[in-house]
Amino acid sequence: MGVLDREWFQRDDNPSGGSQPPVGQPPGMRQSGSGRVPQWALEEALNEQLRAYRTETGGRWPGDNRAGSNRAGGLRGGGNPAGGGRRRRRGQSAVRKLRVRTAALVVFVVALYLTPTVFERDIFPDVLPLLPWSNVPPRGVEASTVPLGTPPPSTGSAQYALFDYPNLQQEFVAYDPCRPVHYVVRPDNAPAGTEGIVQEAVAEVSAATGLTFVFDGPTSEPPSPGERDSYQPDRYGKRWAPVLITWTSPSEIPELAGDTAGLGGSEIAQRPDKPLVLVAGQVMLDAPAMVQILEFEGGREHVRAIVIHELAHVLGLDHVQDPTQLMHEENTGQIHLAEGDLAGLAKLGAGPCVPEL
Fold first, then answer.
1. pTM, two decimal places
2. What is the DSSP pairing of strand 277-286 with strand 243-248?
3. 275-286: string of b/e by CB count within 10 Å (b at 16+)?
4. Is the dihedral of CA 203, 207, 213, 219 positive or negative?
5. Other CB atoms closer than 10 Å to residue 242's CB: what's the count?
6. More confident residue, 30 or 268
7. Which keywords, in A-to-Z order, does the entry hold (predicted)?
8. Residues 295 and 241 occupy one common structural domain
9. Of 44, 227, 280, 352, which residue is least crowded by CB atoms under 10 Å?
10. What pLDDT score does 26 carry?
11. Domain interval for residue 249
12. Which residues partner with 245 through β-bridges?
């Protein structure tokens, strides 16, 4: 049976005038006494034909050629068995769904773009210190709202150099002046006659920068020739590791071989969108070389000058070409901070406060 035509069932005239059913009228359709076919008979015949058609076509409605379609139920409310109106409604629903999905996709893409920035800047730094494997302390430990000290006025000299760091948006990198700079000393291998030298050197750089130094006592931590762990909660508690000062030797630190009497430097820490800050510095002093220097007249002052030189490296000063400055790479007999050294240290004492770190 082909595609049904509803008009085929709705013709009620009999142009042939005989006993045969009118053209297009199925045989056996019940009629009234006047020969007209009542409406209920038309509907009965229509439903009968529809049932026969669905049986023949495996349950599909006329005009429905989609594979797997399994619509149930008869003709309702005079609707089109071909389902045209229903397909239009489904088409509109599909458009709405497409719009909703497109909007959701846009929101998802925007979220992916923004979420890492928000997460890394505002959430992750606060959550990270709480994790068991964290390599940073809780933020703001011992941080004040104002600097703890004031650097002296600059000498105006330009004979100093600051370490070059990767953040080109930042003029220089320094310790946070709004919190104390803790330091510890490993006393092993300290030469006789060096008692108090470290404390004297620390006091001189503290006066030159305005930074507040706090001595936390002795430690057993060995020097680190490479990158030092800047956060050691098991050893120093939940704060940045203090500056480590050790008396060592070329056998422990090969970089001290030759004419190098000491090494100094710091690690860098940063919170997203905040300035770089120096933390966890260390000074490594060649103890055997110091023993030799102490044998000369004025040797103690020269050893103290070496400690000051390395502490200045810890705070961010680099070598200069001017031989009259203590930060000259070669030892020229200078035992005190010169004007260029003082100008550089005063600048480093005025670094930014970063309580978020």
1. 0.65
2. parallel
3. bbbbbbbbbbbb
4. negative
5. 27
6. 268
7. Hydrolase, Membrane, Metal-binding, Protease, Transmembrane, Transmembrane helix, Zinc
8. yes
9. 227
10. 52
11. 181-348
12. 185, 283
